[in-house]
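ugh finaly. both done.
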Amino acid sequence: MSPFRTPSPVSSVKIHRALIGSAVAIAAVVAGTLGAWSAGAAAQPAAIARPAGLVGEASPVRSGPAQIPSAQSASQPSAGRQAGELDAFSATALSSASGKVLHAPQGKSKAAPTPRQIARRLLRHFHWSRRQFRYLDPLWNRESSWNVRAYNGYSGAYGIPQAVPGSKMASAGQRWRTSAATQIRWGLRYIKDRYGSPRAAWEHELATGWY
């Protein structure tokens, strides 16, 4: 038989069908892969699909440990604030870090001096030592209980030193009816002119019941 014989028609058809079947299978696999890739890409959001008009953009997510701001960085004032000012977030961060509640500084109100405190201060203006107050205190405590509005309806005496009449205390300052400083200044002047010292006035009070 000749080696260059004509191939059988049946064999040619089988080979042709086998080749076509393989090509179709390969095409199906490639098409399926492309379809799966297209479906996955469609599920991802587009990089350019952001709302218009945003001032800043969020940074992309990166792998690695998350960065937590420290209390020191939170305590630093921003560039738009003056030094010493804290917003609510920074104040809360500082409060949590230190365990202390931050309060705004408030001005301290100074209480007005009492009549006894005023009398102690005025003693030196009459060249008396502070020890004279131990005699002045019981003297005016008996006369008026150190009350600027004390009034004796029988004699007309008025105020802490029980001046008669009370209007004469106007020579020592303003508001003689309500000012403890005016009344005490007048009373000390009266004691100095008449007795020389609170001790002598108190001794007279003990002896006679008045001064």
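ok and the 2nd:
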Amino acid sequence: MEKIAVTRSIVDARAFGEVLARDYDFDSPIRCQLISKMLRTQDNDHYLVKTDDQKYVARIYQLGSHLQRTESDYLFELELLAFLSDSGIPVSYALPRSDGGFLGHVDAPEGKRYYALFSFAEGKPMVATDEEQLYTLGGFMARIHLVSNDFASGHHRHQMDLPFLVDRPIERLKAYWADKREEKLDILITSAEDARDQILSLLRNEQLTEDGWGPIGGDFHPYNTRFTLGGEAGFFNFDLCGFGWRAYDLAVFLLNAKLMKQSNDLTEAFFAGYYSQRPLSRNEHAAIAPFMTIRRVWLSGTFSTVEGMAGYTFIAPAQLDLD
């Protein structure tokens, strides 16, 4: 029988649980189940892993071709999380395997897919309309930026520079939208180029701040943040981390939390928390607005060409015509 190509498979939870039980030193039998609420076709696959008295989350990463990642990229992420945890930042970190490593892989139908087991982030998703939580989150984001200035890794990880954030997404959009969406394409390209010029102008006049560039989370989001009833915060999902501008990190959260569409008090609470740990220069603050535009363009370019992973129903921020 002829074999057919597979773009994205879902690993059976029971079979994956057997792999985890073999590769990790659990103190009791485990139960493994797919977390369906986190199952979206542009995301990695996540599994809740339980022992008699502990909970963990296992992640099977997408096939590396999605964002052109290699084993080194994943090891950088896990190393950064360990560094942040050791520095007192409440992040979900990878747990060691029996062999001392942190990354494994399974041979899925579409190819090699890497996986890791993470500590469990307790609590409920943050409420993006809660000023106290926004203040706390802003403070922790600043602390993450500050402590990661001392982070060093021998593993390669992509840089979120302007070619990555603007040039390559525009190339993808031109190839994908040129026939049917010329007017919208022109708007996106013009917006992206204007934003890029603004960033370049700010960089020429001042290097934003002395540590305006460094390791960033890349996708801070209310859904990636947990708060316990006691007000303690926890962060997870650093899948888009890497070297980038700290102002871009702030822009991404403002978009993800839709703060600019809500009251000024909420935005001010977030910035007050951030400034309490790491003040921004005037130029760095000015860079946030163009970075918000750049983020929208990056999302559009990244997902518009990953039809096999994202499908036609997730093209952000604009939807493709389905005729």
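summary for the 2nd one i guess: The radius of gyration is 20 Å.
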